[in-house]
Amino acid sequence: MPGRTKTFLLGLGCQKGGSTWLHDYLHNRPDCDFGVAKEYHTFDARYLDLFRWFHARDLRRLTDLLNKKQRLGFWRGRKLDWRIDKLARKIVFREDPSYYAEYFDRLWQADPAIRLVGDITPGYAALQPEHYREIKTLLEGKGFDVKVIFILRDPVERCYSAVRAANEKKIARGEAIDLRGLLEANFATPAFECRTRYENTVRAVETVFAADRIFLTLHETLFTAAEIGRLNRFLGLDDKTPARLGLRVNASSRHGDVPADLAARIYRHYRPTYEFCAERFGRDLIAALWHHD
Fold first, then answer.
1. What pLDDT, in 10s, does the model give residues 110-133?
2. Which helix H or strand E contains 112, and what residues bound it?
3. Cβ–Cβ under 8 Å, residues 292 and 159
4. What DSSP string runs through 190-242?
5. How many CA atoms lie less than 13 Å away from 3 in the CB half-sphere?
6. How far is 252 from 193, CA to CA, in rounded Å?
7. CA distances from 257 to 30, 178, 241 (A)
8. pLDDT, averaged across the chain
9. What is the mean pLDDT of residues 33-38?
10. CB-neighbour burial class of residue 84 (10 A; exposed 0-12, middle 13-18, buried 19+)
11. CA–CA distance from 35 to each of 38, 237, 257, 292 (Å)?
């Protein structure tokens, strides 16, 4: 494609919607660089009480790694140095987002082949219009054309996948996990609501970004050549890098379907979300892909 673009991709998830696969596909392209992390948690951990634990966790991890490095000796451990650098950057970015913008600007400047940089953090789906406006202003100040992607997944399936993922290590160890009970206890909590009320995210984003700077897609149709082609055109990228459409990345084990009665309860709880998506993507398509009534 003629000309070199300077595009920043702000990925909003959704959580358990294929964002890790998307990151791997884009980051492994020769014309994209997402830096040291897939999820930076810069703005959710900075502005939202529900996500501040990411900052506390990273501070604790950084302290542990620095103590480990001191025990090993300061001349050892390249992998350890990389982990320290990664955590330190994430912490600093939250304290002063100007360093965040500077970091991605340097990634773009460092290699003339790079057309796209970005940050795909599902927690950003919970941000408010004023937060998106700040991000846009911050990055446009560095000359970036800021584009947004949001992947929407059947709310019942998204909630179920999130519960399974949170307990994946226990499941792998063969521990008995009451997935139904966990799903029942969590699907209506603030942590699940903010990631599943897609209408809130879309409306907030559309308050700040022009329609041609927003890419909405369904998890259930994302992994097709046609949809990846549409994404590449949106991002100003070519189709030369093949997408591994059958590859599962960060997928949780299924362990059966959601019990029908519980699925119906979750559907009723998120009925406004289903209605919003039916209006946005087409009632027939949503009914065919997301059917729980």
1. 999 999 999 999 999 999 999 999
2. none
3. no
4. HHHHHHH-HHHHHHHHHHHS-GGGEEEEEHHHHSSHHHHHHHHHHHT--S-S-
5. 4
6. 20
7. 39, 13, 35
8. 92
9. 95
10. middle
11. 8, 18, 37, 40
What is the C-alpha separation between 114 and 7, in angstroms, rounded?
9
**Helices within the chain (DSSP H only):** 19-27, 42-47, 53-72, 78-95, 97-110, 129-140, 155-166, 168-172, 179-186, 190-196, 198-208, 219-222, 225-235, 260-269, 271-281, 283-289
Please say whether the beta carbons of 88 and 62 come within 8 A: yes
Which tokens go with 213? Answer: 């700077």
Task: Give the span between the Cα atoms of 251 and 248, in whole angstroms.
Answer: 6
- In tens, the pLDDT along 5-24 reads 999 999 999 999 999 999 99
Distance CA 104, CA 18 (A): 23
